[in-house]
Design brief:
- The relative contact order is 0.07.
- The longest helix is centred in the middle third of the chain and has 58 residues.
- It contains 15 helices and 7 strands.
- The chain folds into 3 domains: 187 residues, Arp2/3 complex 21 kDa subunit ARPC3 (Orthogonal Bundle); 140 residues, no CATH class; 158 residues, Reverse transcriptase/Diguanylate cyclase domain (Alpha-Beta Plaits, 2-Layer Sandwich), CATH 3.30.70.
- It is 63% helix and 7% strand.
- The N and C termini lie far apart (100 Å).
- By secondary structure, it is an alpha+beta fold.
């Protein structure tokens, strides 16, 4: 048994069943036997559907076979106890062994076919039908029929007839009950559904139709056929709207109701021979299960797949947006210093120029050029020169904290500071603060007459008017910078016309 009931990784069940399962399992199995005997056994002792085997199979599938030997022992004991009322002790033992073999074989076949034990996919439902209702139930019917003939030598029922009766009853029981137990013991796979007025109307009409179908005799009213087949459309509606759980419940209730009215002599499929009536009932139940539950599983799988695709699209959209944001930041950032680049400066200058033109507020531009930077590179090397520029960029970024201010690398060893200001004094203060902060860094520069890294700064101040372009402010700042260099460097100059 242990070799057979090993866990399968394709299930969403728990690793081990909780303790109360060992109490519930035999009780549920015994109750299923009694329910079958009450609802699904004809006066001729022919079983329409046999539910109990599905209890153990659903438990094995739900918990991936963990502690399968214990669950099998409990249900086997329950089966023997329940069968004593109909068979001798030896017969009860043998037939219960056949039922156990049927369940174990069905579970083993599903493992061999690599089916998901939660029946969450339509192809797994097909594998379940092949393994359980078809193969395992057929094997059990061949064995059980032989046992029945040995137990009762006086029976006149042919062996193949016994095989068919046992096979169809067990197959339908597995098909009805296993998906129902799995759906109510496992997680809800479908998203919550809002119950609408149309849903209520369809459910009420379906209940009324079911009451009509199962209350009349001989399957017709005034010559009009009213058979259980009429309940297929409401079941399909449940499959579309409410998923596997409630569809499986509806299928189980309709199937048991069909078997029950059959055993009470209502003849829901018309005035036909009892054996033909049983066959028609079993055909209807098989159709109801495969179409109703299969359609519900298929729709749930499609919806889950659709939600998965939507999640992937959402994730990829977010990743794309993050990438675009990063690319935008990279395209606006100087690769060496990490501050804004020339392209970003041009964009911000155009925006601030337009804003200043509307508000009438002066706009200040400071151009900073590192003094004797070529000599610095020649003396210390280009890698040290790059480090020097990074130090200066960090210093400038640290000393401009106001909203709307911008520090950018203009090109080479030139930096720009753009800021809306009140007057020339504020513009000069910004520039001088930056120059003095650079002096505080005291970066060594052996090739400079100052002995350390310094900078010349040109300041331009202007209130834009209609028709003027940003080139005007840049040219003024550039002229001021040229004057600072001409006067000996390491100083700040305000463009004369701007100061007026």
């Amino acid at each position: 048994m242990n070799a057979t009931l090993t866990p399968l990784h394709l299930s969403n069940g728990q690793d081990r069943p909780p303790w109360w399962i060992y109490l519930l399992l035999p009780l549920l199995h015994f109750a299923s036997v009694k329910l079958t005997l009450l609802c699904a056994v004809t006066p001729e002792t022919e079983v329409v559907v046999w539910l109990p085997n599905a209890v153990l199979l659903a438990a094995l599938m739900r918990y991936q076979g963990q502690r399968g030997w214990a669950m099998a022992a409990l249900t086997y004991s329950s089966d023997v106890l329940a069968s004593l009322s109909a068979f001798s002790p030896w017969g009860a033992v043998l037939l219960s062994l056949v039922n156990l073999a049927e369940v174990v074989f069905a579970y083993w076949l599903m493992r061999r076919m690599h089916a998901s034990l939660g029946l969450q996919r339509f192809r797994d439902f097909g594998k379940f039908i092949a393994a359980g209702p078809i193969a395992a139930a057929l094997l059990a019917s061949l064995l059980a029929s032989a046992v029945l003939l040995q137990l009762d030598a006086s029976t006149t029922t042919p062996y193949l007839t016994l095989v068919r009766l046992w096979w169809f009853g067990d197959a339908l029981g597995l098909l009805i009950y296993t998906p129902l137990l799995l759906s109510f013991s496992g997680p809800v796979l479908s998203a919550p559904i809002r119950f609408t007025l149309l849903d209520g109307t369809v459910v009420l009409l379906g209940l009324a139709l079911a009451g009509l179908v199962f209350s009349i005799h001989r399957g017709e009213i005034g010559g009009v056929s009213v058979t259980p087949d009429l309940l297929l459309p409401p079941v399909l509606y449940l499959a579309v709207r409410f998923g596997v759980r409630w569809t499986a419940l509806a299928v189980a209730l309709i199937s048991l109701a069909t078997a029950w009215v059959l055993t009470t002599g209502h003849q829901p499929f018309g005035a036909v021979d009892v054996h033909l009536e049983i066959v028609r009932a079993q055909e209807f139940i098989f159709t109801l299960c495969t179409i109703g539950i299969g359609f519900a599983i298929l729709l749930t799988e499609l919806k889950t797949h659709e939600r998965g695709l939507e999640d992937k699209v959402r994730e990829r959209t977010q990743a794309l947006e993050a990438t675009n944001t990063l690319l935008a930041a990279l395209s606006a950032t100087d690769g060496l210093t990490g501050i804004a680049n020339r392209r970003r400066f041009d964009e911000v200058l155009a925006s601030e120029w337009s804003r200043a033109a509307r508000s009438g507020q002066p706009l200040a531009l400071v151009m900073l050029d590192v003094d004797f930077f070529k000599a610095y590179n020649d003396h210390y090397g280009h890698l040290a020169g790059d480090d020097c520029l990074r130090h200066i960029a960090r210093m400038l970024a640290a000393h401009l904290h106001r909203t709307g201010d911008l520090v950018a690398r203009y090109g080479g060893e030139e930096f720009v500071l753009l800021a809306p200001v009140r007057d020339a004094a504020e513009a000069l203060h910004i520039a001088e603060t930056a120059r003095q902060a650079l002096a505080t860094l005291a970066l060594p520069h052996a090739a400079s007459p100052f002995g350390m890294v310094t900078a010349s700064l040109g300041v331009a101040l202007h209130v834009p008017t209609v028709g003027e372009t940003t080139d005007l402010l840049v040219q003024q700042a550039d002229q001021a910078l040229y004057q600072a260099k001409a006067r000996g460097r390491n100083q700040t100059v305000l463009q004369a016309s701007s100061a007026a």
